[in-house]
Design a protein that fits this description.
Layout (H helix, E strand, L loop, with lengths): L2 H11 L6 H61 L1 H10 L10 E2 L5 E2 L16
Length: 126
């Protein structure tokens, strides 16, 4: 085969000139790619907005729960105050103890044991 025959054969395979029909599939492909890219960006943006609203709702809920936890902690601290504990103990019939007595490892007693005062002999504090 000569060079001219090869060129003629290649020329038959290639379309003659740039016709609009030859560009149409390429243009359609580019338009589809751009459209699908824009659609993907729209879906991504929607998902991010949904996540943003959910994050805002959760932050608000966290703030409310933190406030509630702090209020409950203040209430617990109030119940744990020495004066409040003593008052609640008296309401339940408990009396303050005297001086503590300790047992040594050898079984001897250190300190002088005393009975707890009853309500009759209890002194009322200020």
């Amino acid at each position: 085969m000569t060079a001219q025959q090869r060129i003629a054969r290649l020329a038959r395979l290639m379309p003659a000139g740039n016709t609009p029909a030859a560009r149409a599939p390429f243009v359609l492909l580019v338009v589809l790619l751009l459209g699908s890219g824009l659609l993907a960006l729209l879906l991504l943006n929607s998902a991010l907005n949904k996540g943003s609203f959910q994050l805002e709702r959760l932050e608000k809920e966290t703030e409310e729960l933190t406030d509630q936890q702090q209020a409950l902690q203040q209430q617990v601290d109030g119940y744990a105050a020495p004066g409040e504990l003593a008052e609640r103990a008296r309401e339940q019939g408990l009396v303050p103890s005297g001086n503590p007595v300790f047992l040594n490892p050898d079984g001897t007693v250190r300190g002088k044991p005393e009975s707890a005062p009853t309500e009759d002999t209890e002194q009322v504090g200020p």
